[in-house]
Amino acid sequence: MTHLLKQREKLFNQKYWGKLRSKEWLNKGDPNTKFFQRSVNAQRKKNRVVKIKDACGVWLNDQQAIVAKVISDAKNVQLIKLSDI
Predict the structure, then answer these.
(1) Rounded distance between C-alpha atoms, residue 70 and residue 77, angstroms
(2) In the beta sheet, which residues pair with residue 59?
(3) Helices (H), ranges, the chain
(4) Dihedral through CA 52, CA 58, CA 63, CA 68, nearest 10?
(5) pTM of the entire predicted model
(6) Which of 19, 22, 31, 81 sits at 20 to 30 Å (Cα–Cα) from 62?
(7) Backbone angles phi, psi at 60, to 5 degrees
(8) Residue 9: helix, strand or coil by DSSP?
(9) What angle do CA 54, 59, 62 make, to 5 degrees?
(10) Largest Cα–Cα distance of the chain, in whole Å?
(11) Domains of the chain, residue spans
């Protein structure tokens, strides 16, 4: 019986302190938060499409032109896949 009570108390303490830690983390942040935020932002910059070359070899710099090119290429790829079936 005392073993069960100790086990129950241990579980309660783990849950309590876990909730307390998560509240502290939400309020104060994590020491690694700045590091991860910087790494995520760097990855976003790295993955950003700034320019893209069309079929004629002309570089497209305009955001709307890039979006239109990507969408048209994606549609063409899907049409090719559908025609292979």
Answers:
(1) 11
(2) 53
(3) 2-28, 33-47, 63-84
(4) -90
(5) 0.46
(6) 81
(7) -100, 120
(8) helix
(9) 100
(10) 80
(11) 52-84
